[in-house]
Amino acid sequence: MGIHKSIEKRLNWTLHVSFDKATGFYRYKRFEKFIYIRRHRHFLREKDLLWTCENLFFHHYRPSNDDIVLDLGAGYGEEAVYLSTYSPKVNYIGVEAQPVVYECLANTYRYLGDNFSAIPYVISDRDLVKFVSQYSYASVGEIPQGYIEVPTLQWDVFLQRYNIDRIDLFKMNIEGAEKEILQQITDFGIIKRFIISCHDFRANNNEGEWYRTKATVLSILEENGYRIKTFSYGVNWADDWIYAER
């Protein structure tokens, strides 16, 4: 619970965060590279970034060399900055649909190299998706009152547009939409590994049964021949992550 609280509060930002007049965003440094954020309190402490990267995101597999990483729900790009220090040549595709967070992500990636790409789409079969503005970017997903139209791409069109013919690690943290993405995939053969955040903990917090995704995600992955590894840290949001490999 301590890790979760520290991530949510993102303490001590005043010592590390500065306002960038050129972009109008706040920013701070990790591993000598800038991470751009919408709000100063979205600052992420280094020990929390290290914990999530080393114990969750890249615990079972840390991409290297010319690996292709697809990151749906890339946020501000903290984990890409972490990975760039170990694997600067990795091909990292970060997809972030929330417009203002996407703009921060693009600013973060511009310091990492041309092999780090920020992309502003919802991957969906639907023609129209609308978000709302929220202080917490984890809360901007589609609701009936949405008024910010976000561009969409179907999965196969997305792969074709960005010339993706293999994915060495597919990271996904998209606030309950993970099962919808898996249901769109027509060829799992190009995807070697997944690291997916399920959101049952949000359903358990009475935020809605739509967030209860773990059973469906596990079923789809197992049906497509993936070996599953789970996490057991005694922290509900962390233990809802799933690693899978073929």
Which short descriptors sum up this protein?
14 strands, 246 residues, 7-stranded mixed beta sheet, alpha/beta, 3-stranded antiparallel beta sheet, Rossmann fold
Which descriptor suits the 3D outline?
Answer: globular
CATH topology: Rossmann fold
Number of helices: 9
Name of the CATH superfamily: Vaccinia Virus protein VP39
Which structural class do you get from the secondary structure elements?
alpha/beta
Q: Count the strands?
A: 14
The amount of beta strand, in percent, is: 15-25%
Task: Please give the share of residues in helix.
Answer: 25-40%
Please state the second-level CATH architecture: 3-Layer(aba) Sandwich
**What does the largest sheet look like?**
7 strands, mixed
Note the gap between the termini. 32 Å
Order of helices and strands: HEEEHEHEHEEEEEHEHEHHEHE
- Average pLDDT taken over every residue: 90
Would you state the CATH class? Answer: Alpha Beta
Q: Outline the low-pLDDT stretches.
A: none
Rg, alpha carbons: 17 Å
Domain module tally: 1
Strand numbers in spatial order across the main sheet = 6-5-4-11-12-14-13
Structure description:
The mean pLDDT is 90. The strands form four sheets. Strands 6-5-4-11-12-14-13 form a seven-stranded mixed β-sheet. It has helices at residues 2-9, 46-57, 78-86, 99-109, 155-161, 178-184, 200-204, 214-223, 236-239, and strands at 18-20, 25-30, 33-37, 68-72, 91-95, 116-119, 122-123, 129-131, 148-150, 152-153, 169-172, 193-197, 227-230, 241-245. By secondary structure, it is of the alpha/beta class. The chain has a single domain (54-245), classed as 3-Layer(aba) Sandwich (Rossmann fold), CATH 3.40.50.150. It contains nine helices and 14 strands. The relative contact order is 0.13. Helix 2 (46-57) packs across helix 3. It is 30% helix and 23% strand. The longest helix has 12 residues, at 46-57.
